Amino acid sequence: MTGSESVRIAPIKSVSPSKADALLGCRLSEAFRAAGTVHQLPTHPKAHFGVLAHAFLRDAARGAFNGLSVAEIRVEWRIVVEAYEEKLKRVPFDCAVIPLLRTCDDFEVNAYRLIAAASRLAATSNRPRERTSFRSGAVEVENVSRDGQIVGRLDRITWEDGELAVTDVKTGQVNDSEGKLRAGLKIQLLLYSYLVHEQFGRWPKTLRVLPLHGEPITVPFAPVEAQELAERMKAILIDANQLIANVRAGRANESELASPSVESCRFCRYRPSCESYWEARRGSPQACWARDVSGVVITRKLIGGGFHVLEIHGAEGETMIVRGIRESALVEIASGMAVRICDLKGERAANVYSWRSTSYVWAREGRGGLIAGGEGN
């Protein structure tokens, strides 16, 4: 363990239902997040859309658009997107994905579905209430278990025929490849039901998911299932924090917190500096890892339009080509430097990649730390 390892992780204060699946997948990423360690990859454009769409549907479910026409809701959506992108302009890692209309696949199609869903949620008999959106800056109310170990924000709790119902808004895929509810989403909903029980002293009768496209989905559950999951997550939290304390005290290595896998690492924004991730890639080179490359720069060539091409020598002796990199992404990058380049677009030819808006490059000097990094459009 190095000194830098101990300061970039911190104890995890509580289990968040929306992050519970991530904690089960890899304790290290959650320890990074708890310490406020700056993420090292831009947020994917689809994730930005998800943040926007989730808040928009949440507002609609709470009556913010009651009485508005579809055209008026469309105007509200445009204003929210513009305000959000203004904020992104001030975020070094994420500004490259602006405008989302250009970088986010199917942005217009999903926006159309979102507006239609918001319109269905909006009542037609009342005028709209005050919004709780990015413009108003309002914060959702946290629901906390009595021991403070599980903390979450529920989208909607309602009384239906004298029984409690929990509705969670989802803008992404709710089912897995087999058509079943995603495991992480089921975990989230079960923990929400536990928080409702902690707050009201009774279990909700209904758990449902409100997807961006399609009808609401009711999720069957048993209270004992939720109770057992909550206790399991609390035990995992305690064990994780004990290990984090040992790492910070120099009695354990950061890698003991990591659980690298294709699934848990694919969207992890800390993977560039996670040695466990790169070791796992080297140990299973045939797995479907994220399109990241690591090696030593052989040549750096300027081509037309101000774009560059890097030729990289990999650890296994392979030669990799990365095309279409702007000058702004290659500050201080030169031949002979060790680099890691993440989130590339794969080309048809083997070991040939192209730069995209969410790609990022790091250069390291020998076994030392980061000495340069960059981004580009």
C-alpha-based Rg, rounded? 23 Å
Adjacency order of strands in the biggest sheet: 11-12-9-8-7-10-13-14
Low-confidence stretches: 124-140, 366-377
Helix % is: 25-40%
User: Averaged pLDDT, please?
Assistant: 86
What fold name goes in the CATH topology slot of the largest domain? Lambda Exonuclease, Chain A
N-C termini distance: 36 Å
Write the H/E string, N to C.
Answer: HHHHHHHEEEEHEEHHHEEEEEEEE
Q: What amount of the residues lies in strands?
A: 15-25%
- Shape designation: globular
Number of domains: 2
Class inferred from helices and paired strands? alpha+beta
Which CATH class of the largest domain? Alpha Beta
| CATH architecture grouping of the largest domain | Alpha-Beta Complex
Tally of contiguous helical segments: 11
Q: Count of DSSP E strands?
A: 14
How would a textbook summarize the main sheet?
Answer: 8 strands, mixed
Brief descriptors of the model:
disordered C terminus; 4-stranded mixed beta sheet; alpha+beta; globular; 8-stranded mixed beta sheet; 35% helix; 377 residues; Lambda Exonuclease, Chain A; OB fold (Dihydrolipoamide Acetyltransferase, E2P); 11 helices
